[in-house]
Amino acid sequence: MREAGGLATADGTRPVRLVVVAGTGTEVGKTWVAAALIRTLLDQGLSVAARKPAQSFEPGDLVPDADGHIVGTDADHLAEATGEDPLIVCPPHRRYEVPMAPPMAADVLGRDRIEIDDLALEVAASWGANGAAEPFDLGLVELAGGTRSPAAHDGDGVKLARALAPDVIVLVADAGLGTIHSVRAALDGLAGLTARTVVHLNRYEGTELQRRNRDQLIDDGCVVTTSIDALADTITPGAGAVTATR
Question: Which one from 14, 17, 52, 94 is the annotated catalytic residue?
């Protein structure tokens, strides 16, 4: 019996390192960062699996792929990166066809109440779903929305992250105006977790504002990355903390 996310699971397949990808808000590029990170880690020879505990989306965003399968959600993009079945990355009963926070979407659709412990247990039980004989080197769990966005009827992204008990939290933020406030506010919410947190500034182009934002966060004591390669270096098993170079 092993502990996964603070909850017991008998399959013993919890990844060697568990990474939660969170965001300072919506539309900061969490899924793009997660998929790019997955591909980089796979190129390094690591085995990687991804999970999206629950997701909501606009039905019009779904399109058929070359094989006629309907794709287009965050989980589908993660599955494309890892090579997994999208319905393992996010199961059918956790896909909500209304662009609202998952518990709100569930209410609108007349679906069952969502509980944090249920989401954490489903993730814990899913690691062996691909038939892997050994634990994955890295398991990546992408949250929905921002850290304080409702993840379930009884909790937000911070509570879900706590239940998952990750080794590392990647906090994705936009690199531009408003970054300092949004990162500090998100870190305040995550402060009680024991996981090491890495702030990743997405869409970083090195403008003066972006450089100053990066430098201020480093002065705050944050581990900050501005490229996917640097981010991968911070979370590879055995890697030490890497901060952005001024």
Answer: 52
Q: Are 170 and 23 in contact (CB under 8 A)?
A: no
Instruction: Give the Cα separation of 62 and 242 in Å (integer).
Output: 38
Give the tokens for residue 157: 């992204």
Alpha-carbon distance values, 155 to 113, 144, 148 (Å): 12, 12, 9
Residue 17 maps to a domain: yes
For the beta carbon of residue 170, count every other beta carbon within 10 angstroms. 26
Domain tally, the chain: 1
Residue whose entry in the numeric block shows the structure tokens 């085995």:
47
Name the DSSP letter for residue 52: -
Residue 241 lies in a domain: no
Residues 13-61: pLDDT tens digits?
899 999 999 999 988 999 999 999 999 999 999 999 999 999 998 876 6
Known catalytic residue at 30: no
Q: For helices 208-219 and 179-190, what crossing angle results, to 10°?
A: 30
User: Among 188, 155, 186, which residue's Cα sits nearest to residue 171?
Assistant: 186
Supply φ then ψ for residue 113, to 5 degrees.
Answer: -60, 145
- Owning domain of residue 123: 2-235
pTM of the complete model: 0.89
3-state SS assignment for residue 153: coil
Does 208 fall in a domain?
Answer: yes
